[in-house]
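@channel sequence for tomorrow's demo:
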Amino acid sequence: MSEALGYEYEIPSAVLLASANRKIMDIRKDDALALLSFAEDRYGSSERITVLRNRASGLNAKPDPIVDFYLTHAKPTAKEIKPYLGRWVGELIVTRGQPIPIDMEIKVENGKGTIVSVLPWPPHDKVETEIVFVNDKGELVYGRKNRGAGLIISTGHIANDGNLKGKESLVGFTIPDDVPDEVKEMMKFTMENSNTFNLKRVK
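structure tokens (generated this afternoon):
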């Protein structure tokens, strides 16, 4: 951007440190340390950089094996995904929150199952789900990376009434030591209490 526009664009320190913190929560040690070094070169040392560097340095360089399992799992075959094909509409029941509408289509593309969801907020774009597979119990598993860290994973089955029902859980999350107590409490509650969903096949 700086080269294209002909002037030096400075990334604010707060943005660099927030990004480094997200990399730490994703267990991305090298990326976090690189961001912190860049921030220190540009803005000098600070207590916040020291705290984040200590956290990053103590990370295992390998990603969480549970997170890696979901991210590297193969997409389902056409046969595996067949029971779930169609458009599903309903809502996610959020513990301590407002229900969120769900509208998604499960289909086969290039011989593999895929899910395309309509975002429940403007401009209501369609997005392909990052994680999709059918587990050894025949349950549909799908999810995505969280914007901060970890994964949001949904696991469901077709109930006797024909609806797709299940739960949404947080996977691979860690609670940073340096967040306020009320934030820690909220994060812990969210991690320990799954949301549920109930979807009806409309076509």
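heads up for whoever presents: The mean pLDDT is 88.
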